[in-house]
Amino acid sequence: MRKVKKNLNDIPQRLRNCNAHLDRIINERKNTGTKAIQAQFNIYSGLAEDVNSVKYKLKNLYKGKCAYCESIKDDMTVDHYRPKDSVSGGNKLGYFWLCYEWSNLLYSCSDCNQIYKGYKFPILGRYFDFTSKSSAELKTDLNKLNSNLNKFEKPLILNPEEKNFSPEKYIKFNRDGKPIGIDSKGRGTTTILDCGLDKTILNGRRKAKLDNLLLYSIAFLIKNPDKYTDEEMVLEFKEMLEKLKCKISDEYTLFYKWSLKNVKEFVYDNPILRKLPDTGKFKINLKKAIEEKFEVTF
Ligand SMILES: [Zn+2]
After folding, report:
1. What is the model's pTM?
2. Cβ distance 160 to 70 under 8 Å?
3. Partner of 109 for a Cys bridge, out of 38, 57, 66, 189, CB 3.0 to 4.6 A?
4. Is residue 41 packed enough to be buried (19+ CB in 10 Å), middle (13-18) or exposed (0-12)?
5. 116 CA distance to ligand 1 middle (Å)
């Protein structure tokens, strides 16, 4: 997960054009109560290749990565942060008035969106009672991210577009790629659980990316240990550490942030480095590179 800055005024044209359709959905839902809404997929989503689609715009904002797990996959979807159809354990009718709301649409893989998150939207406050609101009211302040509705309900699932969002306040990782919630309100823990961020396959992918980077970087040193002076080796290790500062478009940036924050545990003590020849020279120079680069005291 990483912070995403979405311009809430830069609303895709297709969402701007759906006012009449949205009115129909709101009126139907308010009048009939339980009828499933007929939200039009091509309005809020469309094809990722279609430059006019909402999905295309979200893909660019999210650098092609899932809002929750940061994976880049083939089956990316448009997620309704507040579920549009119903909310398990909460408002049975869901947030139908937010089905075309730009601030409610996130880019997500189908695993996080459909298999795990689904109709879940746990909160700390009270669920908003829409029945007393007019259609016009539902379409005004109540549908914006960071609006009063957000403060009133206090959602537990993290949203990368929140104001002043820092995912590292909520989720940390261990060296095996396993995410752990750390905030006292339980937002990190809830997000991990409800979005399936602790899946074995996902933990393995995070861990493998780090391990592969370390392996790739030390492979040449293993092959020719005597070719390098201590200074050259320290330099090589520093370059390897630099690569841990990945680009925002890379997968699993939050995991890499934790790798850098805990570089002794994640890199120096990483079991993958046991593959280094036991000359001591490698580890001494790696320790030196880490100390110089991160001012870490061993
Ligand atoms: Zn995902």
Report:
1. 0.91
2. no
3. 66
4. exposed
5. 9
Residue 130 structure tokens: 């829409």
- How far is residue 117's CA from residue 71's CA, in Å, rounded to a whole number? 15
pLDDT grade for 141, boundaries at 50, 70 and 90: low
CA of 65 to the centre of ligand 1 (A): 8
Tokens 């290749």 correspond to: 49
- CA-atom Rg of the chain in angstroms: 23
What residue ranges do the domains of the chain occupy?
13-194, 200-294
What per-residue confidence (pLDDT) applies to 151?
A: 78
Q: How far is the CA of 260 from the centre of ligand 1 (A)?
A: 23
- Percent share of the chain, pLDDT over 90: 52
Tell how strand 105-109 and strand 76-80 pair up: antiparallel
Predicted confidence (pLDDT) at residue 143 exceeds the cutoff of 60: no
